[in-house]
Amino acid sequence: MKFSLSFTPVTLALVHHVTAAAIKPRADGFKLYAYGHDLSEGLDVFLADGVAYAGKQAPSNASSVSNITLSTADSESGTWTVTTDSGDTFNWGIASSGSALETVGVANSSSSMNTTGFGLYGAWAYHLSDAGEIEMNYRAVSTGVDDLYVIKWAPSATVDDSALLINLRTASPVPITDKNKNRNRH
What we know:
The chain is mostly beta strands. The chain has a single domain, classed as Trefoil (Acidic Fibroblast Growth Factor, subunit A). The chain has two helices and 14 strands, in the order αββββββββββββββα. The protein has helices at 9-22, 178-181; strands at residues 33-35, 43-48, 51-55, 65-74, 79-84, 89-94, 102-107, 118-121, 124-128, 134-135, 138-142, 148-153, 163-165, 167-169. Residues 1-26 have low confidence and may be disordered. It comes from Botryosphaeria dothidea. Residues 1-20 form the signal peptide.
């Protein structure tokens, strides 16, 4: 049996319309949550004095604290825009001081932070190295307060015993309610 396929301009236009409708762009803004073996359920990522934290409360000595929403400013370069509750905008960045654990936070125009190479693989936040490799080297350093961590970046996969390996994800934690607790019990 022999089959013949022919595409008319109308058929091609319909195929383009159907596939374009099926592929939807990522939502404009997203929040990040920190997950890790020794962390509580996904902890909110927020800013305190321009530094990224994960936790249920703000550091007591912070002069400026804000919830944040991120968005992709430039998908080609991997630049993320951070918008604070008050509407201020900055770029998401990693300090490049050469230390074992680098500060993660926001960069302003005079900052020397690396602000490119960020992306999402599904719901997982990553950084694309200069060699083109996906890196997920986020760490959580305890502040001494329960469920409050400073988010750091390890420039290499070397593990620092003082920092917990974490993943930053866009997937929010599922609240545990009495209804959910009893769902799988028989």
